[in-house]
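A reminder before we start the practical. When you read a complex entry, don't treat the lines as separate problems. The point of joint prediction is that each chain is placed relative to the others, so the output describes one connected object in space. Small molecules and nucleic acid strands, if listed, are placed in the same frame. In the example below there are two entries. Take a minute to note the order of the lines before looking further.
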Amino acid sequence: MPKKELMTIFGETVRELRESHGWSQEQFAVEAGLHRTYVGSVERGERNITLNSTWRIAEALDMSASSLLTLVEAKL
Amino acid sequence: MPKKELMTIFGETVRELRESHGWSQEQFAVEAGLHRTYVGSVERGERNITLNSTWRIAEALDMSASSLLTLVEAKL
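Here is the predicted structure of the whole assembly.
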């Protein structure tokens, strides 16, 4: 699967989950220990995110990284 | 969880799965479309691997990325 598609769908999934928590990008960034502009670029699929950041994002969303990827895979 | 621990356990898990297929690092690298020395450094936990490379490694191991991470999470 092309890298761009994976990151686009990953970003869309993170955005949906963040919004379902009612968090702004800024609130979520604080929760995840990441910078707000970084979260924005992840949500737009612009980042080839690391596994470590995937973990932090999943933890901030109160889920495991494997559960987050299961949601991503369902959309691919 | 510390970044180092995640990458160490991720690398150990990839090594175990690769060996269970009976593949050398070189054979596996060809299968995954990655460089042999890169695979070696991933297995030693030396790389903060990207999500994209995680996907390629999982595909080469005939499993989904979420399934690979489930195995990693079970060891954390």
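Discuss with your neighbour: Chain B has a mean pLDDT of 94. What might explain this?
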